Amino acid sequence: MNANPRMGVASATAAAVLSCGLLIPAPAAAADELHNVTYIAKVDSWSSGNVVTFMRNDTETASADLDAFGSQFEANTVMTDPSKAGMVIRLRFPTTATVHCEIKVDDVTTVKSERFVNTWGNTNDPHTGAMLCGALISSMA
Question: Which first-to-last residue range defines the signal peptide (predicted)?
């Protein structure tokens, strides 16, 4: 057998393997891929002065009022690292209520929680009257 048929067979084999994708690894996700993050919070209580603080992007927080019985708070943002998505719901003293929170990343619910929160506990504890949802954010530290 001479060199020309061997080269043709080798080229055909390489082309077949490459066209099947056996030697090509799956493309890695881009490091700066953006994710849509949705925060949802609700307090089942007649109270005012409640505040929700959430990660606005990978490094900054934002806050909003969370008032009125059963009114749902919703915020949408974009993050490169969705593992940093988190929020804190703080109730104003003297409030006790069931607090609901949910975090969605790219329309998939990643965190969903419901808990009874009481502001009457240890007043020296900064976590009294607050509910963490998702990642720990700077306002909880």
Answer: 1-30
* All structural domains of the chain: 35-140 (2.60.40)
For residue 43, which amino acid is it? V
pLDDT mean over 67-96: 90
- Dump pLDDT digits (tens) for 44-61: 988 888 999 999 999 999
pLDDT for the residue 96: 87
Q: E strands within 15-141? A: 35-44, 51-55, 61-65, 72-79, 86-90, 96-105, 108-118, 130-134
HSE (side-chain half, CA atoms, 13 Å) at 22: 7
> Please, are residues 100 and 91 in contact by the beta-carbon 8 Å criterion?
no
How many residues can be counted in the chain? Answer: 141
For residue 16 the two structure tokens come to 């077949």
Query: Is 39 within 8 Å of 54 (Cβ atoms)?
Result: yes
Tens digits of per-residue pLDDT, 4-32?
A: 555 444 444 444 444 444 344 434 455 57
Number of Cβ within a 10 Å radius of residue 13: 10
Instruction: Specify the pLDDT at position 87.
Output: 96
